[in-house]
Design brief:
This protein is an all-alpha fold and about 400 residues long. It is about 80% helix and about 0% strand.
């Protein structure tokens, strides 16, 4: 029997790109979907928070499962669950049904992202990991943007069709991954971390270096910021500016292309020629400034221009954070570290989503202000990390 499986980052990059495309389809139509069902505004935040809770609770499970059976196999397993939950979400008629189905989507979709990142680490090496991570984030970012564009355009005419396309697409991705992707040959884990996110978080300070713990603080803060801005932005366009879902898709398409260019140029340059711990400080600072300015701009064209610049910077810091975190992982622990990274992000998404849902109903600009504050705090923590690492390096030199 012909065996088409192969260990290949490039093959997985293509499959992961299609996954991101189909994953992005539903996002631009969700606010309109909820409005058609007459859901209160705060439900938008609660539903996204439930998705993040599912990701938070199950990310370590998927990471450890991938370490045990292979990350490609775990990827193929998680996607059909994700597809089924999204189909159920599309049939939701009550807020509680939307919350439950999106919780399962977070459980499975978060697992897909965890094992995907772990596979990338295992199919690359420390010398090219920064470049590989930039490729992965760039390609997936632009494909997610295409998904936004397609979803917004199709959803403007037929919302159920968007869910149908997404479910069929997910099933196709799972099948292609199973046929063409092979896991690297690895030994079993040499150590085991807690499979429960809550237990894992309570033991973080005993399980990892202080520098990694601080990095996770910045991941949490930027995840909170990113989701707060993204959810507010999507809702702001439809609710405050009274623009159709096609605008959400168009903005994401433009930012995806700009992000693709940035990742293939700026990120690769930064990875090769700079200290990433230092570079990320400037990037987070710019995100804070731009996110604060966005809702105070009255001109619609300038509003979108500043938003595109923000999304560009937002695209740049994500692979840098992933590279900095995954430097602490090896082939035996990549799934665990990736799972923890996803869990930390999920905590930020949970809090950010809840904050957005309630603050938006009070004053539409408040979520953007919170976004900016979290970015500025992340900048401060990044400065501390950089200074601390510099001192540790200087002490090592003096002791030699």
């Amino acid at each position: 029997m012909l065996n088409l499986k192969k260990v290949s980052f490039y093959r997985f990059l293509i499959i992961g790109a299609f996954f991101s495309l189909f994953q992005g389809l539903v996002h631009p139509i969700t606010p309109i979907f909820f409005k058609n069902l007459n859901f209160p505004d705060y439900v938008f935040g609660i539903v996204y928070a439930s998705t993040s809770v599912g990701t938070f609770l199950f990310s370590p499970f998927w990471g450890r499962l991938g370490d045990k059976i292979g990350h490609a196999k775990a990827f193929s397993l998680s996607i059909p669950i994700y597809a089924a939950s999204q189909a159920a979400f599309g049939l939701s008629t009550t807020p509680i049904m939307a919350v439950i189905t999106r919780f399962i989507s977070g459980m499975a979709g978060g697992g897909s992202q965890v094992v995907a990142l772990a596979y990338i680490v295992n199919s690359s090496n420390s010398e090219n990991r920064g470049k590989v991570m930039s490729y992965y984030v760039a390609i997936n970012g632009v494909c997610s943007s295409i998904g936004y564009f397609v979803g917004g355009s199709v959803g403007n005419k037929n919302i159920p069709a968007v869910f149908f396309i997404q479910v069929i697409g997910f099933c196709l991705v799972s099948i292609l991954n199973y046929i063409f992707i092979k896991d690297p040959e690895e030994e079993d884990l040499s150590y085991v971390l807690p499979s429960n996110s809550i237990d894992l978080f309570s033991k973080m300070k005993y399980l990892m270096p202080k520098s990694l713990s601080l990095l996770f603080i910045t991941v949490f803060l930027t995840s909170l910021s990113a989701i707060a801005f993204d959810n507010s932005f999507n809702y702001y366009i439809n609710d405050t500016l009274n623009l159709p879902s096609t605008y959400n898709g168009n903005i994401k398409a433009i930012t995806g292309i700009v992000g693709l260019i940035a990742n293939f140029t700026i990120n690769i340059y930064l990875a090769k020629n700079t200290d990433l711990n230092k570079s990320v400080i400037i990037i987070l600072l710019m995100c804070g400034i731009l996110s604060l300015a966005t809702p105070f701009i009255s001109d619609v064209n300038m509003f979108f221009f500043i938003s595109i610049i923000y999304y560009t910077f937002n695209t740049i810091y994500s692979p840098i954070q992933q590279v900095l975190v995954m430097e602490y992982a090896d082939e035996k622990s990549s799934g665990v570290i990736s799972g923890l990274l996803s869990s930390v992000r999920s905590v930020g998404w949970i809090i950010g989503s809840l904050v957005v849902g309630f603050l938006y109903s009070i004053e539409v600009r408040l979520p953007f202000i919170v976004t900016s504050a979290a970015f500025f705090l992340g900048t401060a923590v990044s400065v501390y990390i950089y200074v601390r690492l510099k001192k540790l390096q200087e002490n090592k030199v003096l002791q030699m």
